[in-house]
Amino acid sequence: MSIRFEQVSKSFGTKHVLKQVSFKVERGEILFILGRSGMGKSVTLKHIIGLLKPDSGGVFIDGQNVSQLDDIQLAKVRQKCGMVFQHPALLDSLTVFENIAFGLRTAQYIQLIGHPLSEDDIRRRVCEKLADVNLKTEILDCLPSDLSYGMQKRVSLARTLAPEPEYLLFDEPTTGLDPITTNAINDLIHDLSRKLQVTSLVVSHDMACALKIADRVLVLDQGKILAHADRSTLKLSEEPLIQDFLAETLALIPPAELDVASIGATAP
Amino acid sequence: MTEVRMWLSIVRLFFQTIFNFFQPSAWRRAEIIHAIVQSGIKSIPIVCLSTAFAGVVVTQQIAWHMDLSLHDVSMIPGFTGQFIFRELGIAIPALLLVSKVGASITAEVGTMKVTEQIDALKLLRIDPIEYLVFPRFIAGIVSGACLTLLAVAVTLSCSALVGILGYNFGALEFLNGMKHFIGVADVVCALVKGVTFGSLIPIVSCAYGFHCKGGAQGVGTATTQAVVSATVAIIILDFLITYFFTWFL
């Protein structure tokens, strides 16, 4: 039960986005991928679910090379994954309820659990996931265009969580959200990992969040891995980029909170 | 080169869409009806208005030229009837559908592409071709055929009105004059063109939407390219189908 990158390279035209990137994420782990914009963080996530194929190297989920799977096998792998995109990516023509329930009604999901969920079970699951992301059930009949960007992002997260995937991929999940919701979502990622052994890969610019909940942090720069370490080791890094990220974080968070030993998932 | 690659992906999308005919899950009635309403029923007013005026103008022009050169207007029903059945009553609704429906499809699918909705669909194990293209493709075929017949009927009616009111034809006389020039092949030709153009528009529009890159500017560029490509494709196909029906049937 792991995600493994082996010597993955990817270019778009003349731009080399990933250069022989290798790393592994074990079951139940939370890996934060940090880096400046345009350094291949989102591209890394999209390789995992086969939305992009590497020019060379391989991406493995549970030992299966994603880039060599046919459509049916890829659909099975995607069944295990949920992804929160950079954009909310909600289907405009569907209500909030229909968006969240969408993944619960697909033939593949029904096949996976062995029977279709009743409408009552779907509604219960939708309400439960909506509560997890701090939203009220009053918005269930709203269209995405009726919601603020932050609310759309949380609905998108609820949609991803609804089929209860084994792997969660987050592409900047807290960008554009208020601090309270940001903390709630960080708590959620932490709880899913600890209680349900869900593996999470989080692309972010937010070193503070990484230092709160990540098991390990991977820093990408110029298509290469600049650092891949646990939180305490990362703090000792002398790489200028990491120092810059840390300096930003230190300016925002009291030193006591950054003491790794005292860090919990819940913000005080 | 880019255009060639684009047309190859349009052809591939066409066959992928055709494949969905055999997938029971693709026949989602609500989505298909919604697409027919959007592309067909909501286009009825503009198609009727445009073809009505086109019928009046063309009949006036043909009559004027016949009167001027032959001093005989008795052939108006036959000439206008054939022109309307073979070209006017078909090309006008098709080009209107490109600008109205095709542009809207590219903009919608393109926006879905740049806002990662297409990726989200794939991750939810939904085939975007089955979900987005197929209902619009079926709606395009139905709307294309129905709007063509409607447009031909409206154009012929307006043409007949000009003949009756302006050139003293009797209603039956005008109809009989037409019948000498119009055969079953013309009706079949009109339907074949309507169905072909109706199915082409969503495929070209969706293909450009799927290849959309960037933000709002990318959506705008894709929409323009889709409208231009579909218009050119319709004109070329119009020639080929007319040629086929003229020489082989």
Write the layout of secondary structure elements.
The complex is a heterodimer of chains A (268) and B (249).
Chain A: E1 2-12, E2 15-26, E3 30-34, H1 41-48, E4 56-61, E5 64-65, H2 71-80, E6 81-84, H3 96-101, H4 107-113, H5 119-132, H6 149-161, E7 167-171, H7 179-196, E8 199-204, H8 207-213, E9 216-221, E10 224-230, H9 231-235, H10 240-252, H11 255-258
Parallel strand pairs in A: 3-8, 3-9, 6-7, 7-8
Antiparallel strand pairs in A: 1-2, 1-4, 4-5, 9-10
Chain B: H1 2-19, H2 29-39, H3 44-70, H4 76-114, H5 117-123, H6 128-167, H7 171-179, H8 184-210, H9 216-248
Helix pairs in contact in B: 1-6, 1-8, 2-6, 3-4, 3-6, 4-6, 4-7, 4-8, 4-9, 6-8, 8-9
Overview of this protein structure:
Chain A is built from 11 helices and 10 strands. With 268 residues, chain A is α/β, with parallel strands linked by helices. Chain A has a single domain, classed as P-loop containing nucleotide triphosphate hydrolases (Rossmann fold, 3-Layer(aba) Sandwich), CATH 3.40.50.300. A 6-stranded mixed beta sheet of chain A has the order 6-7-8-3-9-10, sandwiched between helices. In chain A, strands 2-1-4-5 form a 4-stranded antiparallel beta sheet, covered by helices on one side. In chain A, strand 9 and strand 10 form a beta hairpin. In chain A, helix 5 packs across helix 6. The radius of gyration of chain A is 19 Å and the shape is globular. The two termini of chain A are 33 Å apart. Residues 260-268 of chain A have low confidence and may be disordered. The longest helix of chain B has 40 residues, at 128-167. Chain B contains 9 helices and no strands. Chain B has one domain (28-248). The mean pLDDT of chain B is 91. In chain B, 46% of the residues are buried. Chain B has helices spanning 2-19, 29-39, 44-70, 76-114, 117-123, 128-167, 171-179, 184-210, 216-248. Helices cover 85% and strands 0% of the residues of chain B. The chains are: A alpha/beta (268), B mainly alpha (249). The A-B interface holds A 46, 49, 51, 75, 78-79, 81-83, 85-92, 102-103, 106-109, 156, 159 and B 25, 112, 115-117, 119-126.
